Amino acid sequence: MAKKISQTLLEYAAPLLEHMPPGASFSQRHSVLQVAGTVWNALVVAQWGQHDMLPDIYRRLEQMPQPDRSSMREMIDLLVVRKRTLFPRDLRAIGNWQLRVKQDGDLALWADARGPLP
Fold first, then answer.
1. For residue 46, is it within any domain?
2. How many independent structural domains does the chain possess?
């Protein structure tokens, strides 16, 4: 049985989440997962044979000031490699998702998986 897409997203984004400072805010964690989900979906949609959004993502990066641009590019490059090496056959897109922080401080993520668009 396939893992839930929420569990897959957390595994996919794990290196980024693990490198966050211990006191990272909910907003910072949410932003990291938003980037991870966007890159994941761009790669999946391209695998479906639909619009390749990855070049658009890299073009938008060029508008960011340094040093944010370089660190964001490193993050996106890492995510691209992780998807292609660890999850190459997972063709589920990430639809709606919601992040919560449980009482013990751990992240709880709910997400729904989507198939190819008609």
1. yes
2. 1
Q: Would 68 be classed as within a structural domain? A: yes
Q: How far apart are CA 22 and CA 55, in angstroms?
A: 33
pLDDT tens digits along 6-22: 999 999 999 999 999 98
DSSP summary character for residue 115: -
DSSP letter at 94 equals E
Q: Is residue 52 part of a domain?
A: yes
Q: 62-82: buried (b, 16+ CB within 10 Å) or exposed (e) per residue? A: eeeeeeeeeebeebbeebbeb
Helix (H) / strand (E) containing 101: strand 93-101
Instruction: Please state the pTM of the whole predicted model.
Output: 0.91
> What DSSP string runs through 54-71?
HHHHHHHHTTSPTTHHHH
The phi and psi torsions of 82 (rounded to 5 degrees) equal -60, -40
- 118 located within any domain: no
